[in-house]
Amino acid sequence: MGRRVALKRMRADLRGARAVERFEREARAGGRLAHPGVVGVYSAGVVDGVHYIAQELVEDGFTLADYLRERRETAEVPQTYYTRVAGLFVKIADALQAAHDAGIVHRDIKPPNILITRDDEPRVGDFGLARVVDELSESEHSRIVGTYYYMSPEQASARSIAIDHRSDEFSLGAVLYEALTLKRPFEGDTGEQILDRIRHEDPIDPREVRSLIPVELAVICGKMLQKRRADRYPSMAAFAADLRRFLAHEPISARPPSRLELLQKWTRRHPTFSSVTGLSAAGLLVVSFLLLQVLQKNARLELYADERLVPYLEQEVLGVDPPTPARAAVYESWLELGRAAADRLPQRRRALASLGAASMARAGSSPAAGDAALESDLTQASLEQLVTGLEELSRPGTGLLAWIEARMEFARGVEQATVLGAQAAAAWERAMVSIADEAQCPAYGGLEIRPQLGLLPLGRDPASGLWEFAHLLSGELPQRDEAGRMIMGPDTCIVLVLLPGGEFVMGSQRDDKKGPNYFKEAKPNEKPHTVSLDPFFVGKHEITQGQWLRAERVNPAYYAAGQEYAGVAVDLRHPMGFVSWYDSRDMLARLDLQLPTEAQWEFAARAGTRTPWYTGNDRAALEWTANIADDSVTPVHGEVEDLHPQEDWDDGHPIHAPAGTFEPNPFGLYDIYGNVWEWCLEYGYRGLADTHGVVRTGDGLRHTESNSDRILRGGSFSSAADSGARSGLRNCAPAAALDHNLGLRATRPLRD
Predict the structure, then answer these.
(1) How many helices, marked H, and strands, marked E, lie in the chain?
(2) In whole angstroms, what is the distance from residue 110 CA to residue 148 CA?
(3) Neighbouring-strand partners of residue 627
(4) Strands 709-713 and 455-460
(5) How large is the angle between the packed helices 236-247 and 165-181, nearest 10 degrees?
(6) 742 - beta bridge partners?
(7) Chain segment 500-549, per-residue pLDDT in tens
C-alpha cells in the first residue's frame, strides 16, 4: 500500500512453541484494536519459516523509558512537567480502556512498551503477553507473566492466576509513580524480593520523594497502587477522568487513606505485633467513638468518628469468630453503634450537598484557589465515601446492619435450634442411637457422639448409609426427592457427612501392580504411607456461590452467578471458584468450619478404595461421576490436548457444574473429582519431594517446611483424569493464588 511500516520478526533462537504462541497472540491482540493510542498492526504471517508482524512505524519516536532516563539526568524537572505527565497518562489510559473494551488485558505495561511520537502522543505497544479474554489458554497457567518491577500483586502472587483489567491499572500506576518520582515504586536485589514487596509493602509516598508533586496526583497514583483490586479505580476510564479533573482544577474523586486504613496497612505489614495489640486497639477505637459521642457540639469530631465507624464495623463483623451465644452481646453493641450512625445519614447527605455547592463556587473563582481549597475538597471526598458507606450499612435486607442483626439472632438462638429445642433434641437422640448401633451403622463401629452446636441431624444417606447434618448458619435445610436424594437449591446450607475415620493407605505407587493404590504413572511425591484418622465431618458438596455469598456478602467467582459463559447460565448452585487459600480459610472460620487436611481429603475421596479412582481402574467410569476435561471444555479453553489430554466424551459442562449434578462417591460426596480444585490446610512442596513429612495421628495434618504454597486436590473441569482428577494426585499453588478453578470444601472435627 506504499506506506512505511515497522517490521517485527521473531529471533531465530526464540522459535519454540511458547515463543510462537506469544508472537501470534501479539499480532491477534494488536489487530483487534483500532485506536490512536495503540500501535497499529497491519498484517502478520510466516515467510520461509520466519514469523513477522507489520505494524505502525512511529517515526522519530522514543519510548517513555527514554524520556524518563533524560529527566533523571537533569538537575530538576521543568515547572510544567507534572501537568505534561498527567496529560500523557490520560491518553495512555484511554488507549488501555479501548483494549479492555475489546477484551484484551495487556499484562506488561512498562515504560519501554509506551512509545511517544514526535508530536508528544503516546502509543501503547507490545501485546506479546496480553490475555485475550475469549482465548483463555491452559499454557498460561502456572506461570508468572509480566515484568517484575511493574507487576500487580495478583500477577506477582501466583501461577494459575486469572488477571483482569485492574491488573493493568496497578502496572500503569507503577509507571505513573516512576514518572512522578523518577524512581520505581518497588526495588530489590532479586526478582523474588521485588515480588514480595509488591505483594506486601506499600511504596513511599511520592511527595516524600519529590515534594513538588501535586497532592492530587500523589493521591491518584496511590489509588492505582492499592493491593486489593476492588480498591483501585473501577476502570481505566475512571482513572483518566480523575486526571482530567486535576488538569481542570476540579476536585478529584480519589481520596488519601484514612488513619484507620493506614493502621490496617501497617498491621498487614507487621502481623505478629498487630495480633498481640489488635484486641486493645479495637477496644480503644470503640471507647474513642463513645467519647466522641459526648462531644456532640464538635461536628468535625463526630464526622471523624462516623467516617471510621463504618469500616471498623465491616472489619470486625467479618472477623473469623463464628456467631456463638457468647458473641450475641457483642453483635448487639455493634448494632447500637451502627444504627446511631445510620440515623445520621440524612444529616450527612445535607452536609455533602452543601460542600458540593461550595466546591463548585471555588472552582469558578481562580486556579490559585485550588491548593488552598484542597483540604475542603478532600473533606468532601471523605464525606462522599461516608455517605456511600452509611447507605450500604443501612440498606434494608442486604446491608451490613441487617447482616449483623441476622448473626446476632442466630447467636441467640443457635443452642435452642440445634441442641436444646424439643425437635433438635429428638433428632440428636435418633442420630446418636443409630450411630452407636453397629448393626444399623456398621461403618461407625459403635461410635458414641454428643450433640454438636450449630449442626442439625438430617438422617442417613440412602446409598452410603452415613449420617448427614445441616450446618444451619450457612443456609436453609435441604430438600430430598422421592428416592431420598438430596436436592441442592440456591439457598441450601452446607451439608456435612460424618465419616468414620480409621486407618488407610494414602498416596500411590507404580512398582507393584497387585499392591494397594497402584497407578502406572504415579508421581514420586505420592509415596504411599499409612495414616490414622479420627472421625470427622466433611462437606457433601463443594462450597457453592450461594453459601459463600451468605457468609461473605460478596461473590468473587470468576464464572459468577447471574452470568452466562460458553452457553452455560451460572447460578448460586455452582461451586465457588477464584478464591485464594487465605480467603477460603477465613470464610470457613467465620462459619466454625475449616479446610480439610490433605489426609482427610484423600480419605474422603477414596471412600475405602485402593484404586486410582474410587470408580476403579477404568477412567471411563468417570463420565458419570466427575466434571473433568472432555470435549465440552473446548469452547472455553480451546484445544488443550497437548497440555492436558481430554477425555473421549462430552458431559455438556464446559465450565463447572451445579453442585450435585454428577453421581456421588461411595461416601455420598459429590464432585470430589473435577469441577474445581479444592484447597487443603497444609503447606505445599517444592519440586517432586518423595515424602509427605510427619503426619499427625488424628487429623492427618502434615508438618513440613513452611513456604508460600498450599496443597490442592481433586482436579477441576479443565483437568484430565490421570493428571488432576485422581485420589492420590497432589498439586499445589501459592496461598494467594486466584484462578477460575480454585475452590474449597468444608470440614469440621467431631467434638467431645
Answers:
(1) 22, 25
(2) 10
(3) 674
(4) unpaired
(5) 30
(6) 677
(7) 999 999 999 999 998 999 999 999 889 999 999 999 999 999 999 999 99
